[in-house]
């Protein structure tokens, strides 16, 4: 669960991800969402391989038909889900195809 | 290890709006105690397998809650390991008997899931995932979809292979009046069902279910009945992306090898199995990782009918999670109930022939916790 303090802690990490590039390992299109993500359905989520780590991330700014395995992706910082009860907007890491 | 399964009990699985978590647990427990021919006073401890009731109903301390409903005053505790909570509860109960702490232990697996909406349940279940997975908007269908898509790309597994698992398990459930979906489906119907998470469709997924299952385990050893002869747990990363491969669940291999060694049997000796088909791809992975077939060949292995009732090694005769239903905390206990019932020859219309040694595989999360039990006559 996100609270102002957990959001504050995670926001301090965001700088480390800015500008990162990686490769798409696999993806899926989610049609039944958990709480906070219902208004985004359908949306794409994948696993992206960065240098030494793999990460699960939402894929934005593209259609599923444009995606290919091993495609180059780049990190963008975007809003995560809906604003929480304390009205703090949470930002986090997503990826888009590298242009 | 030789722990006797002295009694079993199970409720109807399904959308049971007139039943509460307590009434479900009580019904299964009393049936198991009655079946064991013990009295309540003979039961020294209760282990309760449950995953999400604390979140959905704000009720914790389920060990004491359920023990006190039954009038039990001995040891009681709740065990949580996502969808492997039930299997873990059985494992701990076996440990306590083997350690000599208790002689007779009751294990109850129970989950009440239909009191809240789909998005709330989807979120509650994602408690078994990682924080990064939750922030990515992933769901359990989503995580298994990533594994399914990778398996398809790597080994040529098809949507038809996935649908075959669903058709088989519905066929088995059609002979189980406790099942949530006690009816058959056609391959066409499975293939045409709506997509929930590409490439998985609605008929690739186990349902949201209310239900309970219970077993009475005992140190008694009179040479009659069914015994748990192997019980093992293995662990992996909670986050799927932290694993080297997306097409295998290594904890299944590890837990099954340990449990088989403990039981002194080989995987080839297994006559019948209940495996964790939370999604159809999971049954394909289970066949491969348990070693019933080679990696990548799980789809064809199932399609050929080996694991259908009447085949050489029936799998998920209860209907599996797909068609019998998946009350998450109850599933691991239900698997023990089904195998014990089959080995005793009491499975009625769905009775498998000549079964002496059975295996259960219960998975938590996307493979972070796996519990394997071996049972034999």
Q: Let me know the CATH homologous superfamily of chain B.
A: Thiolase/Chalcone synthase
List the chains of the largest interface with their residue counts. Answer: A-B, 30 and 33 residues
What's the mean pLDDT score of chain B? 97
Strand content of chain B: 15-25%
| Helix and strand pattern of chain A | HEEEEE
Describe how the helices and strands are arranged.
The complex is a heterodimer of chains A (99) and B (377).
Chain A lengths: L3 H8 L9 E10 L12 E7 L4 E6 L12 E8 L11 E7 L2
Parallel strand pairs in A: 3-5
Antiparallel strand pairs in A: 1-2, 1-4, 2-3, 4-5
Chain B lengths: L2 E8 L10 H16 L8 E5 L3 H4 L5 H8 L5 E5 L5 H14 L5 E8 L6 H8 L5 H5 L4 H16 L3 H15 L13 H6 L2 E3 L2 E2 L9 E8 L7 E10 L14 H14 L8 E3 L5 H11 L7 H6 L16 H5 L3 H16 L13 E8 L4 E8 L1
Parallel strand pairs in B: 2-3, 2-4, 9-10
Antiparallel strand pairs in B: 1-7, 1-8, 4-7, 5-6, 8-11, 10-11
């Amino acid at each position: 669960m996100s609270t102002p303090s957990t959001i504050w802690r995670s926001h301090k990490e965001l700088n480390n991800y800015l500008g990162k590039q990686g490769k798409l390992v696999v993806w899926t299109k989610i049609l039944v969402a958990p709480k906070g993500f219902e208004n985004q359905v359908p949306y794409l989520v994948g696993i992206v391989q960065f240098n030494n780590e793999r990460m699960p991330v939402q894929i934005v700014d593209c259609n599923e038909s444009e995606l290919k395995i091993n495609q180059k992706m780049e990190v963008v910082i975007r809003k995560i889900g809906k604003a929480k009860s304390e009205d703090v907007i949470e930002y986090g890491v997503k990826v888009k195809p590298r242009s | 290890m030789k722990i006797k399964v002295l009694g079993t009990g199970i409720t109807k699985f399904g959308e049971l709006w007139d039943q509460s978590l307590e009434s479900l647990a009580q019904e299964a427990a009393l049936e198991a105690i009655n079946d064991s021919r013990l009295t309540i006073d003979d039961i020294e401890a209760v282990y309760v397998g449950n995953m999400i009731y604390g979140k959905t109903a704000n009720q914790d301390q389920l060990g004491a809650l359920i023990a006190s409903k039954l009038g039990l005053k001995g040891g009681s505790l709740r065990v949580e390991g996502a969808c492997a909570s039930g299997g873990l509860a059985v494992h701990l109960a076996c440990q306590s008997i083997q350690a000599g702490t208790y002689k007779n232990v009751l294990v109850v697996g129970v989950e009440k899931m239909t009191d809240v909406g789909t998005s709330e349940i989807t979120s509650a279940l994602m408690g078994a995932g990682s924080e990064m997975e939750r922030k990515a908007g992933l769901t359990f269908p989503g995580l298994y979809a990533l594994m399914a898509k990778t398996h398809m790309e790597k080994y040529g597994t098809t949507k038809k292979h996935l649908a075959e698992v669903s058709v088989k398990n519905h066929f088995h459930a059609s002979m189980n009046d406790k099942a949530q979906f006690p009816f058959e489906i056609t391959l066409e119907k499975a293939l045409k069902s709506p997509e929930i998470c590409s490439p998985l469709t609605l008929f690739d997924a186990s349902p949201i279910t209310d239900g309970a299952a219970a077993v009475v385990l005992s140190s008694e050893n009179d040479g009659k009945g069914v015994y748990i002869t192997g019980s093992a747990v293995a662990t992996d990363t909670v986050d799927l992306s932290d694993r080297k491969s997306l097409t295998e669940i290594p904890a299944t291999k590890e837990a099954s090898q340990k449990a088989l060694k403990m039981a002194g049997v080989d995987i080839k000796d297994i006559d019948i199995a209940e495996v964790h088909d939370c999604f159809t791809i999971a049954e394909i992975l289970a066949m491969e990782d348990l070693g019933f077939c080679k990696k990548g060949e799980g789809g064809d292995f199932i399609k050929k009918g080996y694991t259908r009732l009447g085949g050489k090694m029936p799998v998920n005769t209860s209907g599996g999670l797909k068609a019998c239903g998946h009350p998450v905390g109850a599933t691991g206990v239900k698997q023990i109930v089904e195998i014990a019932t089959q080995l005793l020859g009491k499975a009625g219309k769905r009775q498998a022939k000549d079964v002496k040694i059975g295996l259960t595989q219960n998975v938590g999360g996307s493979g972070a916790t796996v519990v394997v039990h071996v049972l034999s006559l």
